[in-house]
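[Meeting: bench + compute handoff]

Bench side (C.D.) handed over the final construct sequence. Compute side (W.E.) agreed to return the predicted structure before the next meeting so the bench team could plan truncations. Sequence as handed over:
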Amino acid sequence: MIKKFYILALMSVALILWSCDDKLSDVASSTSLPVHLNITMPADLESAVGGEISDEVFEIKNVTTGRVTTYTSRNDINLKPGLYDVSYEALLEITDENGNVSSKNIQAFTQGVEISADNSTINLVTYVFVPTDDFIISEVFFAGTLRPTGNQYYGDDYVKIYNNTDHVLYADGLTFLESKFTTTQKYNYRPNVMASAFTVQAIYTIPGSGTDYPVQPGEELLICDTGIDHRVANENSFDLSHAHFEWFDVSTSPSHLDIDSPTVPNLDKWYCYTLSFFLLHNRGFKAWALARIPVDKEEYLANYLYRYNYEIIVEAGTYPMSQQAYKMPNEWIVDAVNCSVEAEYAWNVTHSSLDRGYAYCGTMDHDKTRYFHSVRRKMLYLKDGRPVLKDTNNSSDDFNSHVIASEIERQGTAIDYLGSKCTQLTWDGVAPIN
């Protein structure tokens, strides 16, 4: 009896010690670690003979919790072990070889940095942010509308392209792109060309000889899937017969033919992955961009094919994959926007110099609240009566997400499958037009 009691006592002590060790382990794993920032200056500033960094801002997002913390000093950053996305901005005052002093806005962005007891260093490779002097994407309507039955309607997706400058821009040759990769699935693509190029699966170009399509400051172009009055087929949709251009595809599938609008000219199709017809991803799991391509179609298609490998890893095993798409050099891209939803977001499929954030409609995959909504670029202020839109190459900050589409507002059409009419009119989905 005494022996049995002794054994039970030993077991109790062991359990207490194990429990204490486990708690100590938990405490140790949650202890914040001082972080070392390794910041590399932009390669194009290597000729600078002096430099002083000021106004540093670090935005660090815990990937697991979604919590974002802002720091203004690199010496005060302490993080618990985990995965982090890190955004960085600062001013760099430099003196060039001729003694001229200038101030540059430098930025960096990196995703999926693992902080642990073995590694608490964050490497940031910076670049100089230069606002574009070309067109920007002001709206992407990818979610579509619903029929009165509640079923998805296709064909009324569109993109708006805006002249945010103070001078005339010519849209001739401007190219619209959709990413091959999705923002909801991250793979280790090899070779990794993201630092130099954007991987695309759809390329449509505005025709013209160079000065055929002038766009005044504060004016926009509307490009769309099908430039017809969609209210004929779906009373909850709207009229796109006034669009400037549509993307039209000659389908190889007799059961899935595209519609060629008689009132809207076609974009010049350079390439698209589909054998039927192209639609914007209706949950928004892509990036879209505008580019100025300095070579002709034949040269581009011959020289910019991108073949890559990656692995799909699932419980059943690892499966090697090999695919191909086209790559668009980053220096040709004038604007880009990544889209996703918070519940599925994995990464940006553009280099951070093109976009450091993402916009969205809905909060989860297949979110039915996304219909009738779009992502619209924020208005900063009015200048001589024209809206000046926000453009910092960070779509999380630059766009109003999940707002009523502008064409729905302007035409006063349905905002839900019940046919409730839109009665508001805004500059950007939020700021009202008086």
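W.E. noted at the follow-up: The chain has four helices and 28 strands. C.D. will use this when planning the next construct.
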